[in-house]
């Protein structure tokens, strides 16, 4: 019985369903913002991965050139 009264303090289901509209709008805005943020993170991550791969290749090439010159 005590649990029900404690939980009923936090649950609120309005009779007027128009009270759900602001919550739905803010949820939509945050979902769109989260989607674009996620896409931005993916784009930056791919860009950084290509830079790292180019750096790795250039370092390998330099190591190969240094090894050939010392022989």
What do these coordinates show?
The N and C termini lie far apart (86 Å). The model has no long low-confidence stretch (mean pLDDT 88). The chain has helices spanning 2-8, 20-70. The protein has a domain at 34-71. It is mainly α and 71 residues long. The protein has two helices and no strands.
Which features would summarize this protein structure in a list?
71 residues; mainly alpha; transmembrane helix
Helix-strand layout with pairing:
Layout: H1 2-8, H2 20-70
Query: What is the CA-based Rg, rounded?
Result: 28 Å
Distance between the termini: 86 Å
Strand content: under 5%
| Number of DSSP E strands | 0
Mean pLDDT: 88
The biggest beta sheet is recorded as: none
Shape verdict? rod-shaped
Percent helix range: over 70%
Question: What is the succession of H and E elements?
Answer: HH
Label the structural class.
mainly alpha
Low-pLDDT segments, ≥5 res = none
* Annotation field: number of helices: 2
Protein name: DUF4083 domain-containing protein
Keywords: Membrane, Transmembrane, Transmembrane helix
Transmembrane segments: 20-42
């Amino acid at each position: 019985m005590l649990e029900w009264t404690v939980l009923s303090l936090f649950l609120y289901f309005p009779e007027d369903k128009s009270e759900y509209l602001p919550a739905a709008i803010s949820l939509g805005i945050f979902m769109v913002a989260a989607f674009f943020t996620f896409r931005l993170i993916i784009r930056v991550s791919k860009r950084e991965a290509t830079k790292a791969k180019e750096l790795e290749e250039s370092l390998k090439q330099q190591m190969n050139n240094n090894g050939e010159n010392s022989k």
